[in-house]
Amino acid sequence: MQGKRWLMATSAFRKAVESGDHAAIEELLAENVVFTSPVAFKPYPGKAITAAILRGVGRVFTDFRYVREIVGADGRDQALVFTAKVDGLEVNGCDFLHFDEAGLIDDLTVMVRPLSGANALAQAMGAQFDRIRAEATAG
């Protein structure tokens, strides 16, 4: 039964991301969520900064779509494979999600490739970071 809850949460996250529903994305994040970026050395702990980063990513990525889901044995660990463009460059990536007992995302790690796409993402997100930080502290 628990596994079904986590699958439903993944479905809700996927739907929210694909539709750009940032309020719904934020509702699915645990207060203690940790976001690990593909382009930053240290993880970002906390719901406010994670939600702000995800809003920033929504402004940077175009043609975003999930193309595959991979589910761990107990359902708490899931991977959503995606394609998107950053400044016209095609990127492939994966959102690795872990769910807590309440069915909220408590760990989100993103990986992207190729290197040229990761570099474009780093540059585009760097240009957004003052806004991201302001959004995170305003909430």
Q: What does this protein structure show overall?
A:
The chain is α+β, with helices and mostly antiparallel strands and about 140 residues long. It is about 45% helix and about 35% strand. The protein is built from four helices and six strands; from the N terminus they run ααββαββββα. It has helices at about 1-20, 20-25, 45-60, 115-139; strands at about 30-35, 45, 60-70, 75-85, 90-100, 105-115. The chain has a six-stranded mixed sheet. The chain is globular, with a radius of gyration of 14 Å.
Which features does this protein show?
6 strands, 139 residues
List the quaternary state of the chains. Answer: single chain
The strand count comes to 6
Going by helix content, strand content and strand pairing, the class is alpha+beta
Q: Roughly what percent helix?
A: 40-55%
SS strand fraction: 35-45%
Radius of gyration, rounded?
14 Å
Morphology call: globular
Number of helices: 4
Give the rounded overall mean pLDDT.
92
> Which spans have pLDDT < 50 for at least 5 consecutive residues?
none
Order of helices and strands: HHEEHEEEEH
How would you characterize the largest beta sheet? Answer: 6 strands, mixed
How many angstroms separate the termini?
34 Å
Strand order of the largest sheet: 2-1-6-5-4-3
